[in-house]
Amino acid sequence: MNVKIDYITGSRRFSNYWWATIIFLGGLFFFLAGISSYLNTNLVFFTSSSDLLFIPQGIVMTFYGTVAIFISLFLWFTIILNVGGGYNQFDLQKGLITIFRQGFPGKNRSIYLKYSIDEIQAIKVSIKDGLTPRREIFLKTKDKREIPLTRVGEPLVLSAIEEKATELAKFLGVVVEGIF
């Protein structure tokens, strides 16, 4: 097999769908509770929010609801665009490594990097444990650049990241750095 392709998930993860939905529903109910206090009618069926005073509780709930709705719309926007999604393609036949990622709309919507396999010095593994653990695989070039190959946000299991790095290093015929 001369071509290896690793797909990167990006924003279309279960956790993003979950939080976008929860934040939207919470924001909607806060917004409706605030508007209910202004109109003195009950717009939320499972509670009596018309008993709230519009100033200060109703205004604050309307504000927080609006902010939450906008945050959830931003999350849905990133999910629809699949920001961070893409692939890593390693082609031994052509001697090329292609890294593709999608971003936000604009001039640099897509990131498309191509490297010759001859430019690659090693596969580097970076492991940082603690409160915010980071486990990443980098493509290290001969001019000391480090290009990330793994997805952001969900650290892989230690054994899986070591296995993936050694498999990729064997495929490319380079060494692995950072594994003790």
Automatic annotation (TrEMBL):
One of its GO terms (biological process) is photosynthesis. Keywords: Chloroplast, Membrane, Photosynthesis, Plastid, Thylakoid, Transmembrane, Transmembrane helix. The keyword Membrane applies. It is a multi-pass membrane protein. Signal peptide: none annotated. Its main location: plastid. It comes from the Eukaryota. The chain crosses the membrane at residues 17-39, 59-84. This is Photosystem I assembly protein Ycf4. It comes from Kumanoa mahlacensis. The gene is ycf4.
